[in-house]
Amino acid sequence: xxxxxxxxxxxxxxxxxxxxxxxxxxxxxTNNDVLxxxxxxxxxPVPWLDVYPTEFALAPSESLxxxxxxxxxxxxxxxxxxxxxxxxxxxxxxxxxxxxRLPPDMEVTISVTPPLSNCPHCxxxxxxxxxxxxxxxxxxxxxxxxxxxxxxxxxxxxxxPQHIVRAEGDWLAAPGGNAAHALLQSKSIGVHLARRWSFxxxxxxxxxxxxEWSAPLVAFGMVIASAIDSASGTAAIYxxxxxxxxxxxxxxxPDPQGIYPDRGAMALSDDGLLYAATLGGSVLAMDAIRxxxxxxxxxxxSVYGGVTVAxxxxxxxxxxxxxxxxxxxxxxxxxxxxxxxxxxxxxxxEGLVYTAADDQKISAFAAETGERRxxxxxxxxxxxxxxxxxxxxxxxxxxxxxxxxxxxxxALRWRTNVSSKALAVTPALSADGxxxxxxxxxxxxxxAAATGNLIRSRRVSSSPLRTSPVCSGHTVFAGADDGSLxxxxxxxxxxxxxxxxxxxxxxxxxxxxxxxxxxxxATNGVLYVLSATQ
Length: 534
What we know:
Number of strands: 43
Radius of gyration: 30 Å
Strand order of the largest sheet: 1-8-7-3-5
Structural class: mainly beta
Oligomer: single chain
Distance between the termini: 60 Å
Strand content: 35-45%
C-alpha cells in the first residue's frame, strides 16, 4: 500500500466558489510498517496553500488525513502556478535493536494545480475577473468551465484543452471565410434572420451621411469592418464585440479613400493579425485584438479587390498586377504582372495563389516564388474571386459561366453556362458538394461541384444578386440589390430572411457567417449583425 492515496490536487475549477468559501483537498497518509513509527513533515511552498498538520507521527499501520486548503487571497504578488508539496518521512524504531531493519527515509510529492490567474500573453498577474491585461493590452476571455484567463483567439482553455472557451468558427477572409474562399460550415441553421444589433442602430436621415462599409470579418468573438465617411472625408476600421455590439476599438486609415466598399476586403491570419489595403494603395498590418498598427507600406496601383493571406505572404490586387508582400514586415517580394485588371481577391491553397482577372484568364502562381504555374482561358472577364476546394479551382465569369479547373495543372474539368446574365460574385460551396452561384438574373443557380451538372435554378429576387452567398449545412443565404437577404432551405424553397430599408442594396463584398450569426453591410450605411431563427 502506498504512503499516500493521492498524488495530485486539482484546484483548477475553484475560481467561482464565492466569498467565505474555502476549497480543500485531503490525502490519506499511511504508515505501512508494522514495527516502526513514521515521522512526517510537510510545509507549503507557496503562500496561497495552507497545509495541516505540518508535522505528525504515525504508529505502525496507522493513517491520518493531510488537508490542503486553497487560499488565493493570500497570493499577494505571487503568481498562481502549478506547484508541488513535498512530504518527508522518517521511520523511528521503538527499540534500539530494531534500528537496522528500518525502511529508508522517503520523500513523496503531491502535484497541485491552481486556477491560472496570469496573463496568457505576458504572464503578468491579473485581478479577479480582468478583461484586459494592463501590462500588454491582451484582451482576456475567462474559461467558462474553470475561469482560467485565455486570449480572445483561443478556442480551448490553456489549462485544460477539454474546456471550450468559444465554439464559434472564424470568418477570416471575404468572400468565403478563408483564403481559399471555401470555408465549410456543416450544421444547418434557421432560414429566418432577426437583428441582434447593428451599427449605427438606424440609417442616417440623409443619404449623404451614410457610411460605405467594406466586407465584414467575424473572428475571435469580434466583428471587424471598415467604413468610408464621405461627409467628413475620413475612413476607419471598427471592431465590435460579437455578442453585444460593444465598441472595442477604431483606427483611422491613412488614406481617406478607404477600402473599396464593393469588392474590397480585409483579411485576418490565425495568429490575430489584420491586413488591409486602401483604394489608394496604402497597406497596413494591425494587431486585431488591440487595434494597434504593426507595420504600414505603400504600393503602386489602385486596390479594388480584397487582400489574401497566403502562408507567410500577403497578396494585394493592384491594377493589372498582384503585389506580393512579406506579411511579417510588409516588405515587397514580387510583383506579378497580369494581362488585365484584377478587381477581386486572389485565392490561396496548398502553396498556390489563383487569380481571375479582366483578361479572361484564370492563373495560378507559386505563393513563395511568384512563378506562374498555368493560365486557362475563359469566356469572359471576372469580377468574382476564384474558389478552391478538393484540388479544384472554381471560377465564375461575367458571361454567366462556371468553370472547374484542376488546381495543379489548370486542366478543364467542366464548364457550365448557367445564365445569360453575369455571375459577378463568388459562388458558395456547401458541405455536401453543391455550388450556389448568384447571378444578375436574380436566380441562385445550383450546380454539382463534382460534375458541373445544373441541378436547380431558383428565382430569388427580381433584382440582381450581387452579394456572395454563404452556406451553413443545407441553409443558403444570398443578398439582392433590393436590400433583402434571402434564404434557401434543404428543399430549395426561397424565403425572404431579412429586409433592410427601401431603396437599399447589400454590399457586393459579401456576407460573413459564423455559427448562427450572419453579418452584412448595406448601402444605407448600416452594419447588420443577425441571428438565424427557424
